[in-house]
Amino acid sequence: MKTLLNILLVSSLAFAAGAKEIKLLNVSYDPTRELYAEYNAAFAKYWQANNKDGDTVTISQSHGGSGKQAQAVVNGLEADVVTLALAYDIDAISQQARLLPADWQKRLPNNSTPYTSTIVFLVRAGNPKGITNWNDVVKKDVKVVVANPKTSGGARWAYLAAWAYALEANHHDEAKAKEFITQLYKNVPVLDSGARGSTVTFAQREIGDVLLAWENEAHLALKEFGADKFEIVTPSISILAEPPVAVVDKNAKRHGTTEVAKAYLDYLSSDEGQEIAGKNFYRPRSEKAAAKYAGNFAQLKLVTIDGEFGGWAKAQKTHFADGGVFDQIFQP
Amino acid sequence: MKLKQLLVAVLLGSQIALPVCGADDATIAALKQQIDDLAQKVRVLERKRENDQDAATTVAKAQPKISLGASGFNFSSADSNFIAQLHGVVQFDSRSFFGDNGANGNDGFLLRRARPIFSGTLFHDFDYNFTPDFGGSTVQISDAWVNYRYQPALQLQAGKFKSPVGLEHLVSDRDLSFNERSLATDLVPNRDLGLALKGELYNGAASYTLGVFNGASDYNGTTTNQSFQDDKAFAGRIFFQPWKNSDLSGLRGLGFGVGGSYQANHPATNAATGLTPGFTTDGQQKFFTYASGVNASGAAWRVSPQAYYYYGPLGLLAEYVISDQQVKKAATSVDLQNTAWEVSGSWVLTGEDAAYTGVTPLHPFSPRNHQWGAWQVVARYAALDVDNKAFVGGVFADPTKSGSGAQAWSLGLNWYLNKNLRANLSYSHTTFDGYKGAAAGIAQQPEQVLFSRLQLAF
User: Which residues of B have a CB under 8 Å from any CB of A?
Assistant: First the structure.
């Protein structure tokens, strides 16, 4: 019996030795495909060169509307890390599935948001409808393309940016802001489930006059479809969108990927990670990368979710929960 | 598409309606605007349809999946985290004994196994199995266990399941080469109640099981919830298939390992002897039993080196078992070391690959299509030797009632009609040593049995 145990132990140790091939799943929101395609390759190279065992890592991506993605993780999609559009969606994973602690956002610098973005307008070349600010997108003859805020993080940021403008323009009159947002969504002919779907609707299907887009998505559309076809219009006011990242502790622990998952997110704040973020039109946190890519980003007034809306929990409950303002003003 | 056609019709209609002499710029602009608006509406409708189709696809993906086929009935949640399966195995046998010198063999038909198998998965990581058996004279719980899969390399199983010692014993009942397991399996423990840590390493190139059990006597047909000793049995097995994932096709099917068990103390009790009720032949007749009043007393251990080799249609399986048991009768005790071994071989005649997990016909039986299923010939030799100390003075075993050894050879032909139906025909010849009893005794003359089986398994 002792011999048998020894054989078992020695064999287990022998098999445990040697470089491993680690697999990570990053569940992200819609427009980050290009960012993480580039970042994943860079991180895999970095990890192989810098871990003592010579392990390799392969990162798989899953993309979709941020809210839908969060729900998929709650329902069992085994994400090692999540990089979603807004903190509320990661809070949902923490609260509903208890896969990571409630204070997850304190674990990384800048509230676990290694890059930021905002909402801008993408209009057709020549700006035929003369759209320059939020008050133009509620005009009756303007068709607006934006995703469904029930499922898309970007759409929630866009909704709140419009709301912030309406409050400012109407001396913080909530009723007027509601009228404004009602008119805006009357102008929306198609509600896609995610931001990338909205870009397809606007750019490829040629629907609408203006796309309420992530800043990075708007720049990407110019790059992909041609700067001669679209223009970016920066409104007078928008919102500081902070897409956060987190390790999904329980999944990573079960997969034995905790160490590499943490390193994966830490590396987003490295010089190379910030460089890749800036290159893909996300606003880098590091001063160095921010200075390098400053020319890509217009200066505008940005309200914050905490300052203007009292945080995501309150904003979600007021505007996007079942029976909230959006349900009241939008009739499909 | 219909909307597009409508749009074209409107466009043409508008053109025709225009006076040949030409319209003013304002009219043309208005018509152009109208066309643009209509085109926009068409695009919006088409996009909505795309989105609806995407949504429908997403909803369909979230629906539970039901399937019914050769692998039984499967009901699965959309994410496969919850699975319920219904399988089953029914074996209808016949046994015909020849030249038994008037001894009462068990000639006739029997329902050897009749087992519905309820199995599945809960919360992705927890597998379960519940298998009652209606095949014997009483209904038994054959298997009832839960297995937690933390990782393939680390799993914890609890309940009633096969003790991890004998190689042939661990072959699924539906995939046995012969109707009955060999004499070698007489010396390994059967299903037992306990806990086992197990796992597969290197994509199955190595596997291990290490468990603690109530402790079962040498193989016998029944196990119960009752345990009559405080000391539990430890049983384990390690098995290697080093070339399983390699390109060396000639070595891919080679596996070898060792199984064993140990129980520190097996006290004699009034409730149970702690010993096997007897060693049985291929024909399931007892050729050896301990004498009345003999109990297990003290340590018991087993060790079983084992190997198999499968390459194309060829299958080979061999194992050797030592079962060491301290026994006691009144004030006399002795350490008995019984041994057994077997070698079996098989050859699939119709081109399929042989495997430890059975044969799957390439061409399921269908006379209309001139398909005849898979055919396999099988052969086996096995021997069991009871320690001679058992017979000294007739204290622990009575030579007028029991044989001290048995050797059996068997030949058979298996017909796999399809994945679910199988028919077997085999002949087994067993000779005995050391029997000094009456002519009518089981071990007085060789046992010659013709077996047949019709098996339904799904």
Answer: 40, 43-44, 46-48, 51, 54-55, 79, 81, 124, 150-151, 201-202, 205-206, 208, 210, 234, 236, 238, 240, 258, 260, 262, 301
Residues B27 and B164 in one domain: no
Q: How many domains does chain B have?
A: 2
- A14 within domain boundaries: no
Judged by a CB distance cut-off of 8 A, whether residue A74 touches chain B is: no
* Boundaries of domain holding B24: 2-60
Helix (H) or strand (E) holding A309, with range, is helix A305-309
Same-domain check for residues B331 and B290 = yes
What whole-number distance in Å separates Cα of residue A179 and Cα of residue A190? 20
Residues A47/A260, Cβ–Cβ less than 8 Å: yes
Q: Residue A306's domain is classified under what CATH number?
A: 3.40.190.10
* A160 and A217 both lie in a single domain: yes
For residues A38 and A126, membership in a common domain is answered with no
- Identity of residue A188: V
Q: Does B6 or A326 have the greater pLDDT score?
A: A326
Q: Do A139 and A66 reside in the same domain of the chain?
A: no
Residue B270, SS3? Answer: coil
Q: Mark whether B15 and B123 lie in a shared domain.
A: no
Blockwise average pLDDT, block size 10, chain B, 458 residues:
51 51 80 91 92 86 88 89 95 92 76 96 96 89 96 96 96 96 95 95 95 86 60 93 93 97 73 78 92 88 97 97 92 94 98 93 95 97 97 92 96 97 98 84 89 97
Compare CB distances from B51 to A8, A190, A256 and report the shortest one's residue: A190
What phi and psi values does residue B399 have, to the nearest 5 degrees? Answer: -65, -15
Residue A310 C-alpha from the chain's centroid: 20
CB B188 within 8 A of CB B218: yes
Mean pLDDT computed over A154-160: 96
Give the gap in angstroms from C-alpha B306 to the nearest C-alpha of chain A: 14
State whether A11 and B151 contact (CB < 8 Å): no
Asked if B238 and A4 come within 8 Å (Cβ–Cβ), the reply is yes
Give contacts of A1 with chain B, Cβ < 8 Å: 234, 236, 260, 262, 301
Q: Any chain B CB within 8 A of the CB of A205?
A: yes
Kindly report the backbone phi and psi dihedral angles of residue B115, in degrees, each rounded to the nearest multiple of 5, phi listed first.
Answer: -125, 110
Q: How far is the C-alpha of A81 from the C-alpha of A27, rounded, in Å?
A: 6
The DSSP secondary-structure symbol of B187 reads G
Please indicate whether, in this complex, the C-beta atoms of A76 and B81 are within 8 angstroms of each other. Answer: yes
For B206, the closest chain A residue by CA position comes to A11
What are the pLDDT digits (tens) for B72-85? 899 999 888 999 99
Q: Specify whether B182 is located in the same domain as B96.
A: yes
Contact B202 A15 (CB under 8 A): yes
- Per-residue pLDDT tens digits for B86-123: 999 999 999 999 887 766 657 899 999 999 999 999 99
A182 and A260 fall within a common domain? no
Check CB contact under 8 Å for A8 and B210.
yes
A&B contacts, CB < 8 Å: 58
pLDDT in tens, A181-204: 999 999 999 999 888 999 999 999
**CA separation, residue B282 to residues A103, A152, B210 (Å):** 66, 68, 30
Calculated CA dihedral for residues A61, A67, A70, A71, nearest 10 degrees:
-120
Identify whether A2 is part of a domain.
Answer: no
What's the pLDDT at B232? 86
Asked if the C-beta of A8 comes within 8 angstroms of chain B's C-beta atoms, the answer is yes
Is A7 a domain residue? no
Smallest Cβ–Cβ distance between B44 and the set A7, A189, A197 belongs to A189
pLDDT value of position A10: 45
Query: Which pLDDT score, from 0 to 100, does residue B20 have?
Result: 47
Q: Do residue B37 and residue B164 come from a single domain?
A: no
* A263: containing domain: 20-116+242-296
Instruction: Return the SS3 of B103.
Output: coil
State how far residue A329 is from chain B, nearest Cα, in angstroms.
Answer: 20
